[in-house]
Amino acid sequence: MSLSKGMQSVAAATLSAAMLIAMAACGTSDNAGNASASADSGSSSNSSTKGFDTSSIKKDDAIAALLPDSVAGDGTLTVGTDTSYAPAEFLAEDGKTPVGFDVDLSKALAAVFGLKEKTVSSTFDSIIPSVGSKYDIGISSFTVTKERLDAVDFVTYFKAGSTWVTKKGNPDKVDTANLCGVKVAVQTGTTQEEEINAANDQCKADGKPEIDIQSSKLQTDVTTAVASGKASIFYADSPVAGYAIEQTGDTLAALGDDTGVTPEAVAIKKGDSATAEAVQKAIQKLMDDGTYKKILDTWGVSSGAVDKAEINPAVSE
């Protein structure tokens, strides 16, 4: 996913205040004027998005020593993330503070390394190409795929499936087994977009109407497209879809069961084995001492927990 990411007007009645605030804050890009923030523990402006307090996490000297100077030399762990992908990574009510379980994990990793943490808001599809140059690591709900493994190394920390979401009651009577001719919203650069593109190729091969694919840089725009009736259905990572449904009250609902549960991982510069090992050991430490589960519990996503952090796991074709 996700979880990247100007704004389209939408009737206030269709969305909760929390979602409207998130949308208003998501005009981020990877250009010079993009929104970025250094997020210290508990820096969110509102308790509802305060997240997990990482201030008690102590530096692990042995793990910190594994990090190369290229990462640790400036005293800061700089993390690229797409802050339109709640609850994994999004902007708090102040419109500038990154929050979410991925952000809390970034802070926890930085604490284990004895570094300050800086989350930089970026477009989802720009993060991987910038890991190792603009960002030390990327943490943005990256599903592990063979294509991405060609570009970066990965350390796993979560698992998630994909969920279809329509307006409550599925008023357009969408059948996910036959999306030809359907207006489908999806976030640019995600594995869900790849699946929709493949389905569209099949529609064309079968001589059926093409899928009206509405690809947006911002997941919030994807959600809004369905909530406002611009699209009939969207497809996203399960935690993101679940959070969107919750935040829009009675407007949206999941359609069918989750599909394709796969690992999500931290992106690291390809070939940087030292950083990969340090990140793997740091995440495993957080898993073993219970901090990791507390972070996930804080955001209500513990169903995606894994008990082992792996470097470059095997993935299917």
UniProtKB/TrEMBL annotation:
The keyword Signal applies. Residues 31-54 are annotated as: Disordered. CDD domains: PBP2_MidA_like (cd01004). Residues 76-303 form the Solute-binding protein family 3/N-terminal domain. Residues 1-24 form the signal peptide. InterPro entries: Solute-binding_3/MltF_N (IPR001638). It comes from the Bacteria. This is ABC transporter substrate-binding protein. It comes from Bifidobacterium cebidarum.
